[in-house]
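User: We ran a pulldown and think these components assemble together. Before we commit to crystallization trials, I'd like a predicted model of the whole complex to look at. Sequences follow.
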Amino acid sequence: MALTLEQLNRATPEQALQWLDGLYEHSPWVLGQALSERPFLSLAHLRHALAQVVRRAGADAQRGLIRAHPELAGPAMLAHSLSAASAREQTQAGLAQCSAEELARLRQLDADYQARFGFPFILALRGPRGSGLTRQQILACFARRLDNPPDFEHAEALRQIHRIAELRLNDRFGAQPRLGNDLWDWHERLAAHSDPGFAEQGQLTVTYLTDAHRACARTLSGWMRACGFDEVHIDAVGNVVGRYHASDPHARALLTGSHYDTVRNGGKYDGRLGILVPMVCVRELQRAGRRLPFGIEVVAFAEEEGQRYQTAFLGSGALIGQFDPAWLAQQDADGITLRSAMQQAGLCVADIARLQRDPARYLGFVEVHIEQGPVLGALDLPLGVVSSINGGLRLSGEIQGLASHAGTTPMGRRRDAALAVAELALYVEQRAAQDGDSVGTIGLLEVPGGSVNVVPGRCRFSLDLRAPVDAQRDALARDVLAQLERIAARRGLRYQLAETMRVAAAPCAPAWQRRWERAVARLGLPVWRMPSGAGHDAMQLHAIMPQAMLFVRGENAGISHNPLESTTSDDMQLAAEAFTELLHQLAEEQAEEHTGKAV
Amino acid sequence: MALTLEQLNRATPEQALQWLDGLYEHSPWVLGQALSERPFLSLAHLRHALAQVVRRAGADAQRGLIRAHPELAGPAMLAHSLSAASAREQTQAGLAQCSAEELARLRQLDADYQARFGFPFILALRGPRGSGLTRQQILACFARRLDNPPDFEHAEALRQIHRIAELRLNDRFGAQPRLGNDLWDWHERLAAHSDPGFAEQGQLTVTYLTDAHRACARTLSGWMRACGFDEVHIDAVGNVVGRYHASDPHARALLTGSHYDTVRNGGKYDGRLGILVPMVCVRELQRAGRRLPFGIEVVAFAEEEGQRYQTAFLGSGALIGQFDPAWLAQQDADGITLRSAMQQAGLCVADIARLQRDPARYLGFVEVHIEQGPVLGALDLPLGVVSSINGGLRLSGEIQGLASHAGTTPMGRRRDAALAVAELALYVEQRAAQDGDSVGTIGLLEVPGGSVNVVPGRCRFSLDLRAPVDAQRDALARDVLAQLERIAARRGLRYQLAETMRVAAAPCAPAWQRRWERAVARLGLPVWRMPSGAGHDAMQLHAIMPQAMLFVRGENAGISHNPLESTTSDDMQLAAEAFTELLHQLAEEQAEEHTGKAV
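Assistant: Here's a predicted model for the assembly, 1198 residues in total across the polymer chains.
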């Protein structure tokens, strides 16, 4: 019989400790401290309490916890002296069936890893869906993590330990993330469509209106129908729109969604999570035969990343009446115009203007998105509430000095363009850090036609500056540009700088942000407010209606725009539960409003 | 009748001033001060004295001197109110025949230039050979110089003013640089041979054993024969060797020369000057029917730049027995092996070993070379005596951090690989400057696959460190590597660093350096000792015999490995005169030695 949370909350400390024994390998101290915080509202609450104990314990105790774990396919496995849970996990991963060669490779990686970090390599052997990793996946992950910096890998080891505990806890409680697992499967199946040249290498790239992109749209519309949406169609820019009607045909609707296109060699969750989470919630409503006092309109935006054409936010832009016919003449890398790509896909350009939404018919816009950053992971939090989508400014620059012979030009007589960019980059780092929540990045950096023995005469660079509030971003930009001016004057250099993008900050609507906060709190999780450093479709809808976003923790320190982008079924389950909570809140509010009116 | 130096030295100050009137546009103060330093040993001495007056006068007086010059094709020309010399120069350059369009373009450039620098654009309208610049050349130079930093252009204006004075002085004294003009013509004619792909664009590229390269060898050997060398041949690596016999058939020889290959899109003087200067001197000896008590062996080295194959110093290396047969398997960009290129050129690989010289048969090695740096130009000195060829160390590095989202990764959580290189670059600058005569350069700098919105996860760079003494270079390298270690540790980054080249410093033989110093002093010029930052063929010969080098000032702030590399007939004349002085000294020493022996 599986344990229930109620039993755990009511049990004596000794009994509770016994029930949870082995969650953390040879480290019952973690359990003891966490259990003193009973009662738990949810398993998520318990998991967070456990993680907090480890967080507060400090680096030495953490290292002790890490070292309490056995090596993969190590002496303990061979000597059959693993803990029961470890033994089961290592067996499920097929480590006992390693060939001599694989075993030798594992032993070598183990030795290298221990030499570098001073603790054993730890990996949750069941993947995010709960199924086992293959031996190849394990070896690849091992080799990759060997390259991490030590403090990074210390944190990664702890994340893996919490994940192992989470999986073991699910077993004890017979609690499987049903919606999360479905979401996992959907993401996997959607990721099977990838553009030519990437698909062959198992990489995910879905750019606007390619065959893979259109296959995604067909797949999504099919799933929407299967979920029980009342109306499903693909609109004039390729957005997949699903509507789940309200109980009252005149009621307004909640608008939600995100994008299904990807960057080149991107991740499976970026954008798609915000389409699939609402879809799974609507499916559950439909299965329960339930209608809400408001409609739900889920839009899978066709284009957000601006990869094939310079048209970022084409999908959500169309909903706010932002489509410039001049874009139709843009060509992709193969010389295919946007117009002909749209015609080829059967989209009717003349209908785009009609996609503009009337805000009076909507309650507001919400978007679920993977965090794409390391903050939630570092805090052991599965969900975060977005306070504002940062305003951004991008510049493209070139500094000109004088290319000269690296051997014959004395240090005092140089006009080194790259050194000026070096100074600027370090200034940007320090100045952005001063603000606390601004970020500044020189992502492109190049000495064009440089040579080992030539003092750089030119240096090209990009500048990306972001802050939660426009005024803060502008002050940052002012200081950075003034510093560049000073550097160039002091070094006798010239420069050009061109603004390539300016996006206003989109603070989330306070009432809607509070709804997400309540939803997170009802799951038993602490509320963490954070700005979104990345741009999102919600920024577009911001122009015409209130918007608010929910972030979901990403694995691998929140890596994004990268095939390693990932999350777990358990975290996606929580996202779906939070979305459902939000729907409930809205339904209650609508009901109260209705009652109020009736009175 | 042309003036003579003797007349000038003996004249009253008033008379002397009158004779030189107009050398410096509306600025007789320059003349007055310089004349107080009479007597002058040479026109070069007088020119240097004039330049020193301007140098000592300070920036305000210099700006006054610059502003005393008329605009090109400006109001003064149109109103016929130019000084006589300016009027002649502007007329010779055909500025009076400018089309309306050209005049408008000149007026615009003039306006832009004055707005940027606060003084008129000054250009010696007669080219380095004394012939007029074309209007196209003038316009191109104008446009290019508009991009210079202000202090750079201030110095360039002064250099042009001294050059104008030099040309006017030559006219007054009826003194044409006869050898310099011949050298100018030879360089131009040799530069007519250029590799395919470059020749069409008027660019100079002569890489090892191409058709253009072999045409250069044929041209040089033809000229050597015409100069009266007794033996001329092309050796087994393609060096062109000319021998001018001593009066005594058993006497040792002076070895001299430099390379005739070039970098891609390089300059006309790099290397070739050191072949042609000795050639013109031998021609003069032969014309005078003169034999010296030692032979002269001029070698035009076939390969120094390592452009087609990774075989820098192939030509001079062969003379010290440095030829590795493994190199023969190297392929060029088209897959042609060195072996097959040599066979194709009719070179006999088996004979290379026999090219090794027996030091007992040589007095030593001297090399004339264009400076390839800004030092002599900045000091208004046409010649410099090399004290040492700097030791060099080249490294190729990559720093690895963690690529992450530029918007979502807080400043404190980044592993920015480029910022580490930025810190390193600024440290190299400061640390090399500390030594005074060390140089350190990061010439290659790149964030591979970087993107405007991604924190750089990798950064590649090169490191080039040089110093006149190996121990000094090694201390510099130690400090730089230790700093990299600290930066990487502090930022949590990994890095790889590989040494790609290490060349020992080659201090010039003191006795030979003194011979160059005496030769320069006898021309009436101050002796300026300087290390060579660039590597030269003399470094190779250094292994088996004493060596010493003479540097010749380059125009355009000493720019090199660039089509703008240039020098003047007057400076080349001085180089030929210094070489002749060196030959005289050696002859005297040999005679004394002989007499000594006889006694």
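The first strand of chain B starts at residue 231 and ends at 234. That may be worth checking against your pulldown data before setting up trials.

User: Thanks, that helps.
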